[in-house]
Amino acid sequence: MFRKIFLIGLTLILICQAALAKDKQKEIPLEDRVKIFVEVSDVTNFAELETDLRLQTMLIQTFSAQNIFNVINTEEKTFDAKSLGEKKSMADVGEFLMFTPPANENFDAEVYKNLGAKYILRCQILGIGTEQVTETYGNHGIGIGIGIGNHRHSRFGIGIGTDIGLGGMRRLKFYCVATQVQFINAETGTTLWRQNVVGKVFVKSKPSKGYDDANDEAYLKALQDLTKNISKQATNYSQKFLVSKN
Fold it and tell me: Residue 78: its pLDDT value, please?
């Protein structure tokens, strides 16, 4: 009897989960999605890398592929996902340096109204470069144990055991792209949320297949990580507060 009740309960739970999953995946009509305009600027000294345009393109592509956003941007550049181009290289960027974000300029709601945007994702790139991290690995130690017990020639037995493992320090190199992201109400100019978001990837000693340089690879993958992190923040907020209002 108990087994029968358990199976019935389990079946009902699975049916409910399937229904929730189906409802979650339900297509939201384009007119009901969050109408967003993506802005990216670069305040670092490395504007020639076009990090702002790369990140903007990646964010537009990510948001456009989701069921929740209606991206208003109409212009989109095309970039090679595995190359910076012949005239660009990460070799001269060096260690990570954070720049101060400029103050917000006068907000012109009419501009965004004419575009049809309700919200703005404004992203300022504040830092690009490598970061060294020191890591401790391994362990070492000596253990001594003294036991008392019967022995053929002695009433005491003493045992000494050692457990020695090699350890040390190593320096790891990461590539970082740091940003400050704001989610803004396009009608009022009010910042709904502000977050510092970072993309960070370990720099390998040799580049993977298809990449020319290990630093270039880490920079491009750090941008991918950054795009994922920004998208997660924007999606979570929009699902929680905005979808039902559009």
Answer: 85
